[in-house]
Design brief:
The protein is mostly helical. The protein contains six helices and two strands; from the N terminus they run ααααααββ. Strands 1-2 form a two-stranded antiparallel ribbon.
Length: 216
């Protein structure tokens, strides 16, 4: 009998919060729900590996599958099995083939190309749940620590983290959350590529301000 896999991070969303809460806009969260906003920003930063000195002691054990690079990798590169899958080592050997259109073409690729497929809704919903879950797990630890260190705020932070959901970020304003600082530098296989949008001319990704070139 084979040994059971050691690690498993099932995608369940924010299921242990005791109730169903609305998903609000990032503007509403910032202006009217400051505790949620604080937990969201610190949680998002933590899974990206950008620990605030005041919170790093609490967040030193972010699960491998909850890190930003693992979650982002579900969407595309580096084309490897997600760390949270409950699979044996021999089952985690990637079957990615650079010569196979299903793995490389934007439509209907099993990675980011899901945007152009009829299966997009059933792929994207659990994907957003995963991001929300990763940030929420961190926020839970932060909220408990904040209340333990600030007794006068008991009941404030824990309730805020229960209500926390990934906010709607649809704005024409500059969005600092669109940027990501790679831990250890930009991966060498992230090449500059040309892309065509409709009938418009090609654009180099290096000229687009929301991509790896403009990250650190």
């Amino acid at each position: 009998m084979r040994n059971s896999p050691i690690y498993y991070y099932p995608v369940v969303g924010r299921k242990c919060t005791g109730a169903v809460y609305d998903r609000i806009s990032i503007e509403d969260m910032q202006q009217n729900h400051p505790h949620q906003f604080t937990l969201f920003i610190l949680g998002y930063s933590a899974i990206q590996g950008n620990h605030n000195p005041r919170t790093s002691a609490v967040l030193q054990h972010v699960p491998p599958a909850a890190t930003y690079m693992e979650v982002a990798g579900v969407h595309g590169k580096p084309y490897q099995e997600y760390a949270g899958d409950r699979k044996m080592p021999e089952q985690k050997v990637a079957d990615f083939d650079p010569a196979d259109p299903k793995d490389t073409l934007p439509v209907p690729s099993r990675f980011g190309g899901s945007h152009g497929s009829v299966s997009f809704p059933t792929w994207h919903r659990p994907y957003v749940m995963l991001v929300e879950q990763a940030i929420g797990d961190v926020a839970d630890h932060l909220a408990k620590a904040f209340e333990a260190n600030n007794p006068g705020e008991a009941g404030t932070w824990v309730q805020a983290t229960k209500e926390l959901r990934f906010p709607c970020v649809i704005s024409l304003c500059p969005n600092p959350l669109s940027y990501y600082t790679y831990q250890g530098g930009i991966p060498p296989d992230f090449e500059d590529e040309a892309t065509r949008v409709g009938l418009r001319k090609q654009h180099k990704l290096s000229l687009w301000t929301l991509n790896t070139t403009f990250s650190s």
